[in-house]
Amino acid sequence: IDVALLYRKDRIKPIDYEHIPVSGEGKYKFRTRDILHFTAELGKEQIHFFVNHWPSRSGGYIETKEKRDITAGILRRSIDSLLIKNPNTNILLMGDFNATPKEKCFTSILKALPYPGNNEPSYLVNLSTSWIKKAEGTIRNGGQWEIFDQMICSQNLLHNNTFKIDTDQSGICNFDFLLEPDPTYLGEKPFRTYLGPKYHGGTSDHLPVRVIISKK
Question: Do residues 18 and 139 lie in contact, with contact meaning Cβ atoms separated by under 8 Å?
């Protein structure tokens, strides 16, 4: 499934967008979904949004891990090109990364470290690392919750003099209507739209996430 970004014209002024191709060569030859890079003005400042849907784990975690590592490297190069020009660039990454915040593709390749406590100028801040306190995860497999859907920002966006990221209001949207009982593993699970080819009537097999950005 490809990605898209919806915005309100009365809140955001679009400037430009591009599709960043994602592929690998040699032993890990593959072609997957583009990353959407959308640039807009919010107030008097620019924000760069990167919308992601990284390679899935279908076929096994080990067998697909390298694809996500390659994707992280491609995204990091795009981010570096922005930060070299302006270290104070406002950046927000979002999407289904099919990986958890502690994996190498985030901590080593993308350079996205946990929030709070990460003040390295060249590193990104993974806001989703604090969400586990508010909800169990965004996707459930085999009775285990994991956070695949994440929000990651640049240091300048988090510590901006114009904007404020409301970390208390940001997180996983685990509303009742998005969940259903899990008869196999007990507890609850996301209310899926489809079970294989059969229409199930739910919203998604992932829970949505949100980050609230407001003016100071």
Answer: no
